[in-house]
Amino acid sequence: MRFQDSGYKRSGHGFEESLRYYFELHANIIFVLLITTFALMARIRLLGFESVDYIQCLNPWYIKLQQEGFLAFKEKFSNYSAPYLYLLYLMTKTGLSSLYGVKIISIIADIVMSLASFALIRRLTDNKIAALSGYALILLSPTVVLNGAAWGQCDAVFTCFIVIALYYLVCEKYFLSVLIYGIALSFKLQAIFVLPVYVSLGLHGLFPLSYLLVCPVLYVVFHIPQIFVGAKISTIFFRTYAEQVRGFKDITLNAPTLFAFCDNDNLLVQKSFVNLGVGLALTGSFLYHVNKALCRNKVLSCAFFSVFIPYVLPRMHERYFFIGDVLTIIYACCRPSRFFVPIFVGVASLLSYMPFLLGRTVLPLPFAASLMGLAAATLGMDLYKELRKP
């Protein structure tokens, strides 16, 4: 009997060792599965929320595509670009309701964007823990969760392509990077925030400037199918982006920018500060270009411009810092001492979301703008320090 008890203990000890070995061997996979599960659960709870954008825009577009099929593209019915509307069209073929169809696109993009971020951080740091942390932090970021699963917006779709483009930029596969960046730009004009990095790299000879012609070519190619169903050329090519630029007159649309400290109703502000913002953006881009050493840190460069450009430009929406939300997390995972930068950016973005999603202001917009300004200043100082490196 004692022999049997002893044997039982030994076999139990062996089972514990095997279990421990299994968890150690597959800990990373288990971690990813758990994080993904909890992230999906958080999003599922938000699927029933209907935002104003969904009710007034996304739902009518989805229903039109559902009823008319691809022939709906014969006339202009949306102020969003063709690639995203094609995704909506494909979702109508699944039989899902418009609410679920719209949001599933963004949820899938959230996961792909987080996986791309994992690959990018792993490439830069060769640190699996840092890469896994980046995956988790991006997938669970409040603004990332709310943007798609609650709001129904598609910012994760084009940002996903930006992260992938940045991965290939770091790998020095420049044509592939520009090609993927061109896809991002075709989805959303906000991808232009990181364009100064690509222009500067091209001007400094890291790749032929002609590569950048891929971007407008891709935009045109994405719209060609609409011509085949009878759409007028005058209503499609670049008109969507032109309407987005001219469509809003407020100096800031609840975005935590430099103009959050100004009065939206002041005509002097509206007329003069537009030029001021564009001038600041161009000045920052020029200073970046004339110092070639700044181009060495591509992730820092893109993170800086994804915060700086929308911060100094007028007529920005609260969602326009979404790229910065993601890229600053990636940067902080590569440089842990800058952990506070994505916190500042994320909190500022989240505070600006609240009036739209909850219908109330949690903290004044100037407070959020101050946090965003501190984040932009920190990233700018980090870029400046790049000049001192040999």
Largest beta sheet: strand ordering: 1-2
Strand % is under 5%
Q: What helical percentage do the residues reach?
A: over 70%
Name the overall outline: globular
Number of strands: 2
Sketch the major β-sheet: 2 strands, parallel
- The ordered H/E elements are HHHHHHHHHHHEHHEHHH
Low-confidence stretches: 1-11
The overall pLDDT, averaged over residues, is 86
Class inferred from helices and paired strands: mainly alpha
**How large is the count of helical segments?**
16
N- and C-termini, Cα separation: 74 Å
> Using only CA atoms, what is the Rg?
23 Å
Number of domains: 1
Give short descriptive properties of this protein.
1% strand; 16 helices
Describe this structure in words.
The chain is mostly helical and 390 residues long. It has one domain (51-386). Helix content is 70%, strand content 1%. The chain contains 16 helices and 2 strands. The chain has helices at residues 2-44, 52-68, 82-92, 98-125, 128-139, 142-150, 155-170, 174-187, 195-203, 214-228, 239-246, 267-290, 298-312, 322-334, 340-357, 365-386; strands at residues 252-253, 316-317. It has a two-stranded parallel sheet with strand order 1-2. The protein is globular and about 60 Å long.
